[in-house]
Amino acid sequence: MVKFVYNGDEVKSTEKYPWIVSFMEKGNSTHKFCGGMLISEKFVITAAHCIDIEEKRPHKECFKENGDKECFRPPESIYVGLFYEKESTDVMAVEVKSIVPHPKYTPQTYVNDIALVELKEAIDCKGIAKPICIPYKNLNKEGQELTISGWGKYNDNEKSEQKLMEGKVHQVDESECLIMAGENRQIICAIGEKTNQSSCQGDSGSAIFHSLPVVEEIRRKTPTPEQFFALGVTSVGPPDCSPEDPDAYTDIFSYRKWIQSIVKNLPKSLNEKYMEENGKEEELGKKKGK
């Protein structure tokens, strides 16, 4: 199958989405097979099915809680700063230290389809790479426009260069994804019917994200008018990549506590810092004193 953001628009600069990374593996030639998002200087978030071993999915030991480590393998390398393989000059190839699939990931049904990848060395986030924010509260809202981005062919020519693509989709009720996602309720469901764009195979592990304006008090002091938040990880969708059918994305906010238990220095958004400093825990979805 052709792997791309269906009818996507080309991303022409690493500066636009500096948190997007590409997973590479070697076969007859080195090729991309999944994406991910940088969420700190040492951690990438992706889909668990991007690091499981497909041929082992039917094995019983692979769908137990805390499944056998032999059911998973890390990407051979992760590339940061790559948006078009013939024009990207400041690309970093980073090695993997460890992989952490969600302990309740079920490969047969894609339930809890989320994983963390720890890098051997910390990335300098003052350069071409910058982490995306994790939601500090539930930002899901039916009808809102979200951005998707991922790797793959920009047309049907199998010999064409791979480019980073983006598209726009709209969030719909999660019940519209139940045919694909079963009873998995920790998902974001989105459809590109209005824009004729959608995620497709090869975009797995990449982001569905949303921008929020920085609170006015901060905006007066910083040139940053908005910040992006990673709402979901591309998980499963229709085999024909039709934009008339919804795609399911693992809802990152639902796994925030699990992520924080592993990523100790998870960066905070400007809004989250401001609200904590000014005692506005209610706006963070937190209760005062806890």
Automatic annotation (TrEMBL):
Full protein name: Serine protease 56 like protein
Keywords: Disulfide bond, Hydrolase, Protease, Serine protease
SUPFAM superfamilies xref list: Trypsin-like serine proteases (SSF50494)
Taxonomic lineage of the native organism: Eukaryota, Metazoa, Ecdysozoa, Arthropoda, Chelicerata
Domain Peptidase S1, residue spans: 5-264
Organism: Argiope bruennichi
GO term, biological process aspect, one: proteolysis
Annotated InterPro entries: Peptidase_S1_PA (IPR009003), Peptidase_S1_PA_chymotrypsin (IPR043504), Peptidase_S1A (IPR001314), Ser/Thr_Proteases_Immune/Dev (IPR051487), Trypsin_dom (IPR001254), TRYPSIN_HIS (IPR018114), TRYPSIN_SER (IPR033116)
Keyword Hydrolase: yes
UniProt-annotated stretches for the region Disordered: 271-290
Gene Ontology MF terms in the entry: serine-type endopeptidase activity
The family this protein is said to belong to: Belongs to the peptidase S1 family. CLIP subfamily.
